[in-house]
Specification:
This protein is an all-alpha fold and 103 residues long. Helices cover 66% and strands 0% of the residues. The chain contains 4 helices and no strands. The two termini are 26 Å apart. The relative contact order is 0.10.
Length: 103
């Protein structure tokens, strides 16, 4: 993110961007740790299998498997990442065109 920002806006102070992004990262990590602690112990129970069942288990055929269900958090994170990638590509493309036109 710092690379994209400093490329699109060369006059920006990279140290300030680093402090802002670092603070955001610390906040996200603290929120994630709190969420993890609040949801601790809510895991789905693991089915008990005998030793023979565990040793003879085989992966089902790929055609028989269903697509995994996305959680709201996972889907929103992937949407955010996709949006960032599209925005970064567009901004860098605009900057490349600007540089091409000035030289």
């Amino acid at each position: 993110m710092i690379l994209v920002i400093s490329t699109v806006i060369p006059s920006i102070d990279v140290n300030q961007v680093l402090v802002v992004l670092g603070s955001a990262m610390v906040g996200v990590l603290l929120a994630g740790a709190a969420w993890f602690q609040l949801n601790r112990g809510r895991e789905a129970p693991v089915p008990e299998l005998s030793r023979t069942e565990r040793e003879n288990w085989r992966m089902p055929a790929l055609a028989l498997l269903e697509r995994p269900k996305w959680s709201i958090g996972g889907a929103s994170l992937m949407l955010t990442l996709s949006g960032y990638l599209v925005l970064a590509i567009l901004l860098l493309a605009v900057k490349a065109v600007q540089l091409a036109l000035t030289h």
